[in-house]
């Protein structure tokens, strides 16, 4: 039934529901009566054919379900996030504005993984929110390493934490739980790799707020990444997708593939 009525607008369904609820339309629905209320002929014929056997209460229940499904689909419709120059008429949303808005409104939890965190002003709203609301906050950081870096893995990890706390998360009274991918801290021997091993990066840029709102995109959490560079991302409000995305990360944590640091 939902598929059959796909071409009927949400507004038309809402008008139909109001007319039935207010007694302005009798049931079962009749094509001519619908047309008399201004419904286009083809739409009236479709509504009468699909819904015409329902009495008042079942019809209202079906219409409530259909309207609810349309509202959910609209809420969960992916939105394009964009940083950088845009052509006239762009429908994209501003990456920085949406990120700050979501963080400032967090109620329960924030999961935030990023390749680069250098803009303290992006994290300030999270700190302020943590001061007033009990939030479960987890962040995943990248540890920089390359063949020219002679420091040990632990030294690189310590340096990453020191820089993060000195330049980005400078507050000392409260802090998120911090994780790293241990592979990013140095060379990873692997006899099956053509070079005998590899360097890895924690290159994901992901935010999940309240296990419902998700941002996934190319932008680093830097001033340039959220104001100047050309960056694209997706804003999605979907508990199903959020659970799937969080499940990926939590699976890494549960299996020891991400390591808690800075405790």
From TrEMBL:
Protein's UniProt keywords contain GTP-binding: no
Alphabetized Pfam families for the sequence: PLDc_2 (PF13091)
MF GO annotations: phosphatidyltransferase activity
Keywords: Transferase
Highest taxon, organism lineage: Bacteria
Enzyme Commission number: 2.7.8.-
Name of the top EC class for this enzyme: transferase
GO biological process: cardiolipin biosynthetic process
Xref: Gene3D superfamilies: Endonuclease Chain A
Signal peptide residues on this chain, from the entry's feature table: none
InterPro entries: DrmC-like, PLD-like_dom, PLipase_D/transphosphatidylase
Annotated ranges, domain PLD phosphodiesterase: 198-225
NCBIfam families tied to this protein: DISARM_DrmC_I
Protein name: Cardiolipin synthase B
Organismal lineage: Bacteria, Pseudomonadati, Myxococcota, Polyangia, Nannocystales
């Amino acid at each position: 039934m939902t598929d059959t009525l796909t071409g009927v607008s949400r507004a038309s369904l809402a008008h139909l529901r109001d007319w039935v609820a207010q007694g302005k339309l009798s049931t079962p629905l009749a094509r001519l009566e619908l047309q008399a209320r201004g419904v286009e002929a083809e739409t009236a014929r479709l509504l009468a054919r699909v819904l015409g056997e329902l009495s008042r209460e079942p019809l209202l229940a079906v219409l409530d379900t259909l309207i609810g499904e349309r509202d959910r689909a609209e809420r969960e419709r992916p939105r394009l996030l964009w940083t950088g120059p845009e052509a006239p008429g762009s429908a994209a949303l501003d990456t920085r504005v949406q990120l700050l808005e979501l963080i400032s409104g967090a109620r329960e939890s924030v999961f935030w993984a990023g390749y680069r965190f250098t803009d303290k002003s992006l994290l300030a709203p999270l700190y302020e929110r943590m001061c007033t609301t009990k939030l479960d906050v987890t962040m995943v950081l990248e540890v920089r390493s390359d063949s020219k870096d002679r420091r040990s893995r632990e030294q690189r990890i310590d340096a990453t934490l020191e820089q993060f706390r000195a330049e980005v998360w400078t507050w000392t009274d409260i802090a998120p739980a911090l994780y790293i991918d241990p592979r990013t801290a140095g060379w990873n021997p692997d006899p099956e790799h053509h070079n005998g091993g590899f360097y890895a990066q924690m290159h994901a840029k992901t935010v999940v707020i309240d296990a419902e709102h998700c941002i996934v995109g190319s932008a680093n959490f830097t001033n340039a990444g959220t104001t100047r560079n050309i960056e694209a991302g997706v804003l999605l409000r979907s508990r199903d997708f959020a659970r799937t995305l969080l499940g990926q990360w939590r699976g890494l944590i549960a299996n020891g593939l991400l390591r808690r640091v800075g405790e």
